[in-house]
Amino acid sequence: MTTRLPYPIALSGDGVMLREWRDDDLDELVDLLDEPAIARWTPMPSPFDIEAGIAYLKRAKQGRTSGRRIQLAITVDGGKPLGEVLLFGVDAGLREAELGYLVGAAHRRRGLAATSLSLLSVYARSTLKLSRLVLRIDPGNTASTAVARRCGYSLTGEPPILQEGPYGPSSLDTWELVAASGSTRMERLRNVAARRYGRRG
Ligand SMILES: CC(C)(COP(=O)(O)OP(=O)(O)OC[C@H]1O[C@@H](n2cnc3c(N)ncnc32)[C@H](O)[C@@H]1OP(=O)(O)O)[C@@H](O)C(=O)NCCC(=O)NCCS
């Protein structure tokens, strides 16, 4: 793969469009990120205020223009941001990278995280040619482990990474999606969002 990640990009499929963050997303970004589950399970500053939002968008742009990370707003049609999905920590030698995601509280349980993670994972595997994708998740974060499982990631036996956060300690397990899993898993990823969410209304 190239060591510089492509910018700008947009990925879409299954009712989701992932697009670059824009400066005029600031108010909606703050609305999304100033929320207890995000404070508990991600390294976001809390409270997440306008100042934090400005710094966040600035850092996102630096990460994108320097080609170090992929950081995309989750939208339905390219408009209002509903969450975020990221790819970072690329190891070009090992051909691996870490991914992360969050969805605003008002938009959860509609398949947005699973669809977005699957879109970015397929892109990472097929376009960036990465062979191992990892997620780091505290086992207490049941929503996130469900997203990982749904997208075909599996729990590794790697020792947990211990972190102290303002809202308590985290013990991050490593989940992975590896090339050796073959076409069946890729097929499953591509089909992830095809499953119905109707039962959640
Ligand atoms: C984790 C998070 C991104 C999930 O977003 P979402 O859009 O609601 O997830 P989806 O609708 O795509 O759900 C995917 C799967 O997770 C399950 N799930 C989602 N939220 C759940 C919850 N609170 N409890 C149990 N399962 C849950 C869904 O039922 C679905 O499972 P299925 O495949 O069995 O149908 C969201 O809760 C969030 O932003 N949390 C705070 C930030 C965070 O924890 N980020 C991850 C850090 S590792």
UniProtKB/TrEMBL annotation:
Protein name, entry field: N-acetyltransferase domain-containing protein
Matching PANTHER family: ACETYLTRANSFERASE (PTHR43441:SF10), RIBOSOMAL-PROTEIN-SERINE ACETYLTRANSFERASE (PTHR43441)
N-acetyltransferase domain residues: 16-191
InterPro entries (UniProt xref): Acyl_CoA_acyltransferase (IPR016181), GNAT_dom (IPR000182), Ribosomal_N-acetyltransferase (IPR051908)
Family matches, as SUPFAM superfamilies: Acyl-CoA N-acyltransferases (Nat) (SSF55729)
Top-rank lineage group of the source organism: Bacteria
Gene Ontology terms for molecular function: protein N-terminal-serine acetyltransferase activity; protein-N-terminal-alanine acetyltransferase activity
One Gene Ontology cellular component annotation held by this UniProt entry: cytoplasm
